[in-house]
Each structure stands twice: as structure tokens, then as C-alpha cells.
Amino acid sequence: MSALYLLALLVSLGGMVLLDRKFALFFWNDPRRAGIVTGVGVAFLLCWDLAGIGLGIFYRGETGLMTGLQLAPELPVEELFFLTFLVYLTMNLVLGTHRLLGQRTTA
User: Strands, DSSP E only, in the chain?
Assistant: First the structure.
């Protein structure tokens, strides 16, 4: 058992927070809306995962890099952090791209 994967996810999430803070993309732009979008996005993706697990499509791969803790059968705790990272990354990319393209068209 190791927490290396969880640590990598937390470091990556920290990087998203730093980018967001520097450019005021998501949470630093509108915290209430960002919280709602993140919550709905993570909930949707968790339901998707649970449906895939229930249908036998998804399963937990064995690796020594994970903690071994599970939220549900075949659903490791790291998945929650990964999905949060995925939503945060996506929103930072979308809002950052929108801002970048918006600045280019007005210049």
C-alpha cells in the first residue's frame, strides 16, 4: 500500500488552484458558480463510474501506488480526487481558452 498516486493527484490539484488564483479563471472568478459546477460534474462522473462498475465495465486495477481504500466496491478513494482534478482542469482550460481567444479577437 502506498499513497503515491493520491499524492500526485493532490499536487496536481494544487497546481490547478495556483493557475486559477493567478488568472482568476474559475473559483477566483465566481466561487459560488464554480462550486456548483464542480459538485455537479463530480457527481455526474461518479454516477457514470458506478454505472460502469455495476455493468462490469470498470474495475479497480491492482497497483502498489494506491492506498487500497475504497469508497465502494471497485471504486478507490483516489477516483474522487481524480474526478475533481478532471473537472477543475477542464474548467480552467475552457475558461482560459475563452479568455485568451476573447483577448485576441479584440486586439
Answer: 70-72, 75-76
